[in-house]
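Suppose you are handed a protein chain with no further information: no name, no annotation, nothing but its sequence. What can you learn? This example shows the usual starting point.
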Amino acid sequence: MEGSVNIVQFVRLSGVLPASLVLAMVWLLVSVIGRTTDRLGSRFAERRLLIQQVSTVLRFAVSIAGITAAILFMFKLSEQMLLALGGTIAVAVGIAMKDLAASVLAGLMILFDRPFQVGDRVSFGGFYGEIAKIGLRSVRLVTLDDNLVTIPNNKFLTDIVSSGNAGALDMLVQMDFHIGVDQDVAAGKRVVRDALTTCRYAYLDKPWAVMVSQEVLNNALAVRLRAKVYVLDVKYEKALVSDVTERVLIGLREAGVAPPAILHREQPGPGGA
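A reasonable first move is to predict its three-dimensional structure. Written in structure tokens, the prediction is:
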């Protein structure tokens, strides 16, 4: 109890209100930065990722500065106080706040080491999606089916993360289509090429290709047509895949190119064998 009394003696009661106001202003400013980022990103689409990255750094700086200012208002940071609270703070950080402290430090390392950035499409821990926010404690990832995944920052220090676009707006997208080994491969390849070159979401200034190979699909031999093309903006990834897939399916049907037999074999009717 005596230790608690000694600690309370270092609290500056007159600083409680200013500290609360500072924290409220920090919360408001971080919210304003977030909303402004969304508006600017919509208006200047070609600079969207850069705007989000600057916003992340600003939120980090504002949060750390605000917390520091609140502590200065709340406590009398004299030499005596530092000596009295040094052991207590060390134990608290070491036990109660170990994971939080590790996540904050990991967040700073992410900002400087930049394994990924806000706006990147990444794969991590079985999840794939866009990095929406890098915070003091965690990273927010939005999957392609619009689920929000929260990942503690310190997880990225030990686990492998893969970034698809590494800070760029465009990203390489890969799509596989299969046809029968007895089909016209040249015609099938032409269909895929036409689908890529007529897709409005494809970024054709970068190299694109249609690769042909054989593979075993459901215990049957098939020809794989692998399309590799860059999307104009990562936010159009699903739209590109959908558009190209639709064009290829229609094109293959019109060209008379059939999928592997195991995929289109007729099923017996109710009275069949």
